[in-house]
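Lecture notes, structural biology module. Today: joint structure prediction for complexes of two components.
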Amino acid sequence: MDRERFKQGRGQPPKRPWRPSRFTRISAIIVAYSLGETFWRTLVALPESLTGAGLGFKAMKCKASLELPLFALTTPQVYELTDRIIRKIDNPYLDYVQDPEEILLCGPLFRRNPHLGPEVLNRFHFSMLLGRELNR
Amino acid sequence: MRQLLDSNLELLITGGCLYVPLLLDPSIAAEWEDHAGGAASPGPAGRPLPPPLRALAGKPFVLAMTLASLAASYQAIHPASYEELRRSCLGKFPDAAMEEDVSPDLKLRTIIFEILPHFIKMKRGRRPGKPGEAEILEEIGRRLGIHPEYYRRARQLYGPDSLKRRLQDLPEAPDPGGPPEGLVAAPDLRDWLHRVLAGQIIHQEKDRLHRLLAEGEPSFETHWQYLALQLYLADRGHAEIDGCGFFRLGRRGEYLIYKRTGEYALKDYYGRIYRFPDCRVAVATLSRLKPMVLETYKHPLLFGQKPGQEICIRQFTPTADFTAKNVIQALEEGLSALYHGYNSRRRNGYHSLDRITEHHRSIDFADYVIPRDDPRIISGELEVTNAYT
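The predicted structure, tokenised, for the full assembly:
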């Protein structure tokens, strides 16, 4: 029985560990930090290219802890804001944000260096990573 | 349902159907865009079903239930809340209130008609089979020795004249008005539902009284017996037959049901006999049906000696679901643990009967030791319940 099962499994793509979706992550941050239109306006007003002047990036900053639900069911207001944020910042680094600041810095960081790996993005706060990129 | 009605949500009511706010994720949102403004679809009986999704003022709503089914099934979904509403509704009328004070609640009915008959021995010479309600009440009345005065009071309280008077006193069912339409706050829906249920309750009460009066005098006999037992319990507070009994806890409608162990004996590793006194194994209807002892008692499967200790039972998961079967099972598990749960070879439980070491122990059973040739043991009056170990 097991042998047949193993044979059937050959050639199948390997199973990937389950991760909460991007929508779940962003909506969880919105709910946890009670984000609203003010945050959206800040995100829209953020300049395309950050120079680092006056941003005061810390040399060391820890990733915020975020309890992610398995899946998200949101009110229309939260859904609409989540959808807008995901459409605006359409890059893979969004899958690693843990707090509102990282959402804001996600776009600039990706534009400066789009080749950062998941381990780095999971481990270091985006403000640290962006500060390092700006200092290069 | 109660959470929904007690919330501050805005609900949509249209065409007698209740719609609740739709929560979204990307797949639901896509489905919403496909179905928004969808028309009614034909149902199984050919009748058109209401559209499952609706939008009002840009807010999405999803069909939850019809208001008719909400009113019809409220009693089944929230029996406690319905009972409270019934009491408050009928409590406005003096005669009805008088009966309500002694009227049996569902738990008491279960105790009297299902749990007690399992443990008590019915009188000899009766026909085999499950006893009926009248037979159980007669047997309980006989065994408890209920004074005739209680029956006289029951006849007064539940006679044809009092029923007729009560029927006259009941007012017409209030008109709840049509169901609300459009966006409705949940508390407004709750108020409307309560008005509908109040009407239902008064209708049911009238039907019940009409039915009783139509059945005539003989049908009152069971009710009188029941009411007499109720009056007796209201006075005494407890009842016990054949070692099985119950009493009402402080909260209305909650009970503690118990069964006495009687005297029994356990043996230890060396074959010494320990006589254990009688105690009551009980379960409370307030919470999970976990068997406990009511008296100050010591036993290898009890942690200490305080009254109200839960009995250590393996492979038994107490449930909070109050049914006769679950209560009987919990009581029998508790009794069985005390009788047969201690294994003299394994010395299981919190304590062992015999001294393993000379160190001080908090629970000592030396005072329970009786000689092996004790006349009660030899005659079989006192059974060694763990003799097989």
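Point to remember: DSSP finds 13 helices and 16 strands in chain B.
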